[in-house]
Design brief:
The chain is an alpha+beta fold. The chain has six helices and 13 strands. Strand 9 and strand 10 form a beta hairpin.
Length: 343
């Protein structure tokens, strides 16, 4: 009987020690792993035309997956096409003007000017000879004073015409002035800029995807008037994808940027997604109303982003997610998404 009474206390003591051991292990397990709850988040862009015109066509539908640089929509371009054609024609004309000035006068033009000068000299000599012949006859009253005066005027006019032709020949031989060539070249640069501007305006009539993503909404339709301040499409980026969660203040020192994480969702039970901590808010805030419980309403938390690998595009905007983080992992540095995700 004494042995039986002795065994019973020892058994109770052993059970107590074992329970304490397992409780301690359970507590240590909770301390080694941090669990956060949040929702999947992505970036979105409101895509708008950089021009004002009626929409000619929208080439995508809601839910379409698009690539970076893909043409999504376009505007009517009749007016822009005409402006570009006009700008190119003006550019070509100015190019010919500059080429003409830079080439200078042709030999044929100079030869023609010499011939015109010789003709002007002949006319001047003839007019002067007529005047000299009539002047002595005035004293003999063989001609009237008016005839002599007309002959003198004709001689002076022919001489002036000859001098004008002579100066034109000199200018022709010297060629265009440097200042005139500089002005023509500046005008040519202006015409080139006008063509570039017209080409850019024509390209602005097209709406391209800025990144890989999914079309969430068609806001405008063909025939609607588009403006730069009015979005036409909503694009959801497929990368990066992250879980927006809130970290309690006591756990702030347990993780750092680059800390590896595992993400689970209710939509795909048992499937784990690789992730890492990519952002920790520098300021604290009260627990958001969307995740408040009576005991959490007065707690301060820090917003964190746990970036996720999403090769199959299974993680969608707003999807609830659970994040597990091992807090005893060695310090890790932040990495880019394409280096953290296994293809």
């Amino acid at each position: 009987m004494n042995k039986k009474f002795l065994v019973l206390p020892l058994l109770v003591l052993a059970i107590a020690i074992g329970g304490a051991y397992f409780w301690q292990q359970h507590q240590n397990g909770e301390e080694d792993q941090l669990t956060l709850y949040g929702n999947v988040d992505i970036r979105e862009a409101q895509l708008a035309f950089n021009s004002s015109e009626h929409i000619d066509a929208i080439l995508v539908q809601e839910g379409d997956y698009v690539k970076k640089g893909q043409l999504l929509a376009r505007l009517h371009t009749e007016v822009l096409d005409a402006r570009l054609a006009e700008a190119r024609a003006q550019l070509e004309a100015q190019q010919q003007t500059v080429a003409k000035l830079e080439a200078g006068s042709r030999k044929e033009e100079i030869s023609k000017a010499h011939a015109e000068l010789n003709a002007a000299k002949a006319r001047a000599d003839s007019a002067w000879a007529t005047y000299k012949r009539l002047k002595p006859l005035l004293k003999k009253n063989l001609v009237s004073p008016q005839d002599v005066e007309n002959a003198r005027a004709a001689a002076d006019s022919a001489k002036a015409e000859m001098q004008a032709v002579q100066q034109a020949l000199i200018l022709l031989e010297l060629g265009p002035r440097k200042e005139d060539i500089a002005v023509a070249r500046a005008m040519l640069a202006s015409r080139k800029a006008a063509v570039v501007l017209a080409e850019q305006q024509l390209d602005d009539a097209n709406l391209y995807s800025p990144a890989d993503g999914i079309i969430r909404n068609r806001i405008l339709q063909p025939g609607d008037m588009a403006f730069p301040q009015t979005p036409a499409l909503t694009l959801a980026f497929v990368n990066p994808v992250w879980v927006r969660a809130y970290l309690p203040e006591p756990a702030l020192g347990k993780i750092s940027l680059g800390t590896q994480a595992t993400i689970y969702t209710d939509s795909f039970p048992g499937k784990a997604y690789q992730g890492w901590v990519g952002y920790i808010s520098p300021t604290a805030e009260f627990t958001p109303k969307s995740v408040q419980t009576p005991e959490l309403r007065t707690r301060l938390v820090y917003s964190v982003r746990v970036f996720a690998c999403n090769p199959q595009d299974e993680l969608r905007l707003g999807m609830p997610a659970t994040v597990h983080i091992d807090v005893d992992q060695p310090p890790a540095r932040q990495k880019a998404a394409n280096k953290n995700c296994d293809n």
